[in-house]
């Protein structure tokens, strides 16, 4: 008996593939206090982002680094969570290392004057 033939559905010409599911992974930094975020911050990934920033607030060091060079996007709700975390930093510093270009602009526009946030280019 021969193997059954596998029929794969064909996508109609001009059909757009389904969008990828947003994802976010967070990894602790090894050489300094902080984490590296990879992916994007959108509604499906907010819980991960919120937990990572809660851990940052609980850390009692003077400086906490958030390495964002591999983060492609942060929506406004994600920026709000970041601003809220920064407000709870008090005299400590929250260093955003290479954030997506729009993030510092959104923070400056909607939450100006957050003294805890420092943006580092490298």
UniProtKB/TrEMBL annotation:
Judging by the UniProt lineage, the source's domain of life is: Bacteria
Coiled-coil ranges per the record? none
Q: Can you give the residue ranges of the STAS domain?
A: 35-107
Q: According to its UniProt record, what is one Pfam family this protein matches?
A: STAS_2
Q: What name does the UniProt record give this protein? A: STAS domain-containing protein
Organism lineage reads as:
Bacteria, Bacillati, Actinomycetota, Actinomycetes, Kitasatosporales
